[in-house]
Amino acid sequence: MNIYQFTVKDRFLKYVKYDTQSDENSKTKPSTEKQLIFARELLSELNELGIDASMDEYGYIYAIIPSNTDKQVPPIGFMAHIDTAPAISGTNVKPLVHENYQGGNITLPKDNQIITTADNQKLHDLKGNDIITSDGSTLLGADDKAGVASIMDAINYLVTHPHIKHGDIMIAFTVDEEIGAGLDNFDLKKFGAKYAYTLDGGDVGEVEFETFNADSISIKIYGRNIHSGYAKDKMINAIKIAAEFIEKLPKDRWCPEKTSEREGFVHVDLIEGLEDSCIVRIRVRDFDEKKLIEYEHRLKEFIAESIFNHPGSRYEFEISEQYRNPKSIMDKHPQIQEYTLEAMRRIGIKPEIKPVRGGTDGCKLSFMGIPTPNLFCGEHNFHSRTEWVSVQEMEAAVRTIVEICKVWEEKS
Fold first, then answer.
1. What CA–CA distance (Å, rounded) separates 26 from 29?
2. 110 is a domain residue
3. Mean pLDDT, rounded, for 21-28
4. Main-chain phi, psi angles of 175, to 5 degrees
5. pLDDT tens digits, one per residue of 337-369
6. Would you say residue 1 lies in a domain?
């Protein structure tokens, strides 16, 4: 692939201009119509490449590159999600290409946004790379359009280089991953893979066979509202009870800003309501499912203590499972790790196995019967206005996809 003219940069610059934010408050599937607009664009591009592809009513795209070998190769899938995070605007993204980056902080023209080398140590290793950012007013959308663009370029390479032997290659682009609904209506039969990979990771060489276990907790607190001029000994302010509960959470541990590596956390990401009732939403994460349960038990104690201090109030405590650590499943299929690492080494990439402090569609897909680790595609500073990606790292992801297909064919 040394003389291949990669298309991943141009595809990425085109894709990020599509606003595809998902909406966790929506009741539709997908959660936003604008995801369908981008999905139709991808479907058109796949058809132009001569790929057998379809899009269903939910916005999922399924495609196949048929086997060109006589060997019995298990169908291998590659997947990326088309939606971007709801927290930061994805409207009117203006991507900027910082060609031949030579080090130092990257100052974005809008809203005093600066990508610092202090917070982005990886930049020290990327001198000479072409770095893409937004203008600072929006997120970039590298999560996960870097994955989408990498898969699309790998498809382009395989279609234009038919001498590369491979089995059936199954492609899927999913919706609503950022709101935890990426596989709610996913059709396993249409996908058709036996093993798969999500392209939704960071540094070159990163491969993730292990993720957090994740639950979402909703605590609804009920108080009593009385006209504030006549509230003495009558009002029970649900907002104040919520604040008292949150104040009980540890400040030096448990929280995302104080944890790293294999430490879990409890993260309050929403509080809304009035004096009469208030909702507190919490994300609970840990690599050890037993610790997840411990966190949840302690949270119940905290809210019960807060309610006890306000007679007449009450609460509802609801736990929703989001995803589970697929490591136990991956361990039963050692060939996935073996072949993936070999593919990287063959093209000069040093593999780095690390647990991901988050989750991907691959978590749920693994438990649905298709073991699915996560591969790098150059995403950095996820879900922020200082998000960035390296063109050369995306190109490395393209090369890795192609080499993985080759290795599975050779080993079969």
1. 8
2. yes
3. 93
4. -115, 160
5. 999 999 999 999 999 998 988 888 888 899 999
6. no
Instruction: Determine the residue type at 69.
Output: T
**Type of residue numbered 133:** T
pLDDT tens, residue by residue, 296-352: 999 999 999 999 999 999 999 999 998 899 999 999 999 999 999 999 999 999 999
Q: Which residues of 222-246 are buried (b: 16+ CB within 10 A; e: fewer)?
A: bbbebeeeeeeeebbbbbbbbebbe
233 included as an active-site residue = no
User: From CA 93, how far away is CA 114, in angstroms rounded?
Assistant: 17
Given the residues 19, 130, 143, 177, the one annotated as active site: 177
Helix (H, G, I), strand (E, B) or coil at 362: helix
If asked whether residues 55 and 156 sit together in one domain, one would say yes
Residue 397 scores a pLDDT above 90: yes
**Number of folded domains that form the chain:** 2
Environment class of residue 4 by beta-carbon count within 10 Å: exposed (0-12), middle (13-18) or buried (19+)? middle
Question: What are the angstrom distances between the C-alpha of 171 and each of 157, 195, 308?
Answer: 14, 12, 53
Decide which of 280, 295, 323 is a domain's last residue: 323
Query: According to the 3-state scheme, what is the secondary structure of 236-298?
Result: ECHHHHHHHHHHCCCCCCCCHHHCCCCCCEEEEEEEEECCCEEEEEEEEEECCHHHHHHHHHH
Give the separation between CA 162 and CA 354, rounded to whole angstroms: 34
Choosing from 83, 144, 200, 403, the catalytic residue is 83
Asked if 83 is an active-site residue, the reply is yes
- CATH number, domain of 102, equals 3.40.630.10
**Residues contacting 296, CB < 8 A, separation 6+:** 215, 217, 284, 319
SS3 167: coil
Residue 261 is part of a domain; what is its CATH number? Answer: 3.30.70.360
Domain boundary among 291, 323, 355: 323
Q: Given phi > 0 = left and psi -120 to 50 = alpha, else beta, which region is 82?
A: alpha
Task: Report the DSSP pairing between strands 76-81 and 195-201.
Answer: parallel
